[in-house]
Design a protein that fits this description.
The structure holds 2 protein chains of 2 kinds.
Chain A lengths: L2 E15 L4 E15 L2 E8 L4 E4 L7 E10 L6 E5 L7 E5 L4 E6 L5 E5 L4 E11 L3
Antiparallel strand pairs in A: 1-2, 3-10, 4-9, 5-8, 5-10, 6-7, 6-9
Chain B lengths: L3 E15 L4 E5 L2 E3 L3 E3 L24 H5 L10 E2 L7 E3 L13 E3 L4 E3 L3
Antiparallel strand pairs in B: 1-2, 1-3, 1-4, 5-8, 6-7
Classes of the chains: A mainly beta, B mainly beta.
Chain lengths: 132, 115
């Protein structure tokens, strides 16, 4: 049975150079999402071929998904892509320990592929409706 | 042009709560990148995004420098500070040459840490 949720996000980023210059940015938002059919979170093993992280959103009024992916590997990088196809519609390439967070307002699945060897990821994926 | 060495750090807290107030999950990840080298290393500020494409980050003549290091990657943080309209962010260029997925940022939402 579809359920309603509230999603809270806050982020802080900074960049600095050897020259001594640095800049930082922060932001936060709340998102009320309704009639959600799919909430997924946990750890997953990613193969060298496409491994689906979340299926394409389905159900009445579904308009996209919130996605977080963290590369837990200590050596190799990871490719994250929409449309669940390697090297197509790439969302990000994550070095070991790096993560991405984004909201994709489309009806595509999200997948990932390892480059050199199987990689473990930490992730969550939550459908969002067209009112969110 | 001289090159610069930079590093990037990100942290966040993401929490999903159900209608009864129960926390479904909460993540608080962070990372600091390795050193990155590029001809133009850091750009930041505010920009008026029109209805046609507007460059907001590194691009154009710097593409080769970006491509030469770190899997052709740019760390980005994009925040829509408009109160009414969404924007679409369209990264260009990535390893293996295929296009990156564009994404929409709703009003007053920061939604992207990395691209």
């Amino acid at each position: 049975m579809p359920s309603n949720y509230t999603f809270n996000a806050s982020m802080s980023c900074s960049a600095s150079s050897d020259s001594g210059y640095s800049v930082s940015q922060t932001g936060s938002f709340n998102l009320n999402i309704t009639q959600v059919n799919s909430v997924q979170s946990g750890r997953k093993e990613i193969a060298l071929t496409n491994t689906e992280i979340c299926a394409a959103p389905s159900g009445t009024g579904m308009a996209g998904k919130i996605v977080y992916v963290r590369n837990l590997d200590k050596v190799n990088f990871l490719e994250v892509h929409s449309v669940a196809s390697v090297d197509t519609n790439v969302i990000g390439i994550l070095e070991p320990g790096e993560w991405l967070f984004t909201v994709l307002r489309d009806d595509q699945a999200v997948g990932a592929s390892a480059d050199t060897a199987v990689i473990d990821i930490e992730y969550f994926a939550v459908e969002i409706d067209d009112q969110a | 042009m001289a090159i610069q060495t930079t590093s990037f750090s990100a942290s966040g807290t993401f929490t999903l709560t159900d209608a009864e107030g129960t926390t479904v999950f909460s993540y608080s990840p962070s990372f600091t990148s390795g050193s990155n080298v590029a001809s133009i290393s850091i750009t930041a500020g505010e920009v008026l995004a029109g209805t046609t494409a507007v460059d907001i980050l590194i691009g154009g003549e710097d593409a080769a420098a970006v491509a030469a290091s770190n899997h052709d990657r740019i760390y980005t943080f994009v925040k829509n500070i408009d109160s009414d309209h969404s924007i679409e962010v369209s990264p260009a260029g990535q390893e293996d040459g295929s296009s990156l997925e564009p994404f929409k940022v709703e009003p007053e939402h920061p939604q992207r840490v990395w691209a």
